[in-house]
Design goal:
alpha+beta, elongated, 12 strands, 295 residues, four-stranded antiparallel β-sheet, five-stranded antiparallel β-sheet, 4 domains, SH3 type barrels, Arc Repressor Mutant, subunit A
């Protein structure tokens, strides 16, 4: 497309300083006449491009020309640089060249404003890179999975999308074992393998809006002030109410499964379920079973 060629011409002139029309024509596989027509378009658009005839001449940009004065605002440049920098954190190989090019193009030093580390503190794996490549190349994945009921199963899936939801990473996939779309918590996946087999399936639109049906429980919790750091770490501001005695009332909706009750118990004596009543009874039952283990 012409717009891409025009952009590339500007970039090449910024990098090489001077190029002949013949060199540019060979580079873009067009005629010399087309290159001169492109130069006229750039000049009309306000790009300070000019030609020098004779030996050592060619097509050049005015010295110290910066693209932001003619096409992109300062804010737009920064947004492009910052976006590329965040992408570089996800894929250091493929995005690094693009980041370097745009930094030179805008005559800007890239600020290191973001750091993303998908590994845990033990730095034990490269799950995200494997999954990303499997999604992009449409390769089948195989892994061992531990669900919220403690069951261990072997899964073979067609990975479709990595998803971040409520402080945790998931992968949306078509599960060949269940013959349906499923969402898998990445932290529970082990022995991950990317197979040579490929697939053609895409993520359905309705799947993007509603990945899976699940029952939710609306909890009202009282958490003691000694656990203030967890309250602020783990709950949104709008769900927290601070009492006069310094304790907290938290209103939260969670998927109802064994995990949510184990999560409540992780606060030990510093938490009390206020509602619903049946959730209080489940917690009491679990505490009684725990006490039996120590009797």
């Amino acid at each position: 497309m012409q717009i891409n060629r025009l952009f590339e011409i500007v970039y090449l002139l910024l990098e090489k300083e001077t190029a002949t029309a013949k060199e540019l024509a060979q580079q873009f596989e067009v005629s010399v006449r087309t290159i001169y027509r492109d130069i006229d378009i750039l000049s009309t658009a306000g790009i300070p491009v000019y030609t020098n005839k004779g030996k050592g001449g060619g097509i050049s940009l005015l010295e110290n020309f910066v693209l932001d004065k003619s096409i992109l605002s300062e804010e737009e440049q920064n947004q492009i640089i910052f976006a590329l920098q965040s992408l570089e954190k996800l894929d250091k190989n493929s995005e690094k060249k693009a980041l370097e090019k745009m930094s030179r193009l805008f005559h800007k030093q890239s600020e290191n404003w973001i750091e993303i580390d998908f590994s845990n503190w033990a730095n034990e794996n490269n799950k995200f890179e494997m999954m990303k490549q499997a999604i992009l190349k449409k390769q089948v994945m195989e892994f061992t999975y531990f669900n919220s009921y403690g069951e261990e199963t072997k899964r073979q899936v067609e990975p479709l999308q990595i998803w971040f939801k409520d402080k945790a990473w998931y992968i949306k996939a078509y599960c060949r074992v269940k013959q349906d779309y499923r969402v898998f918590k990445i932290a529970r996946m082990r022995e991950i393998k990317v197979l040579e087999e490929t697939f053609e399936r895409e993520l359905p639109q309705e799947q993007e809006k509603k990945p899976y049906e699940i029952k939710f429980i609306s909890l009202e919790l009282e958490i003691s002030k000694e656990k203030a750091y967890r309250v602020y770490d783990e709950f949104e501001k709008e769900n927290i109410e601070k009492k006069e005695d310094g304790n907290f009332i938290v209103h939260i909706d969670y998927p109802e499964n064994d995990w949510v009750y184990e999560y409540i118990l992780s606060f030990g004596e510093h938490i009390k379920v206020i509602a619903p009543e049946y959730a209080k009874n489940i917690i009491k039952d679990k505490i009684q079973k725990m006490m039996k283990s120590y009797s």
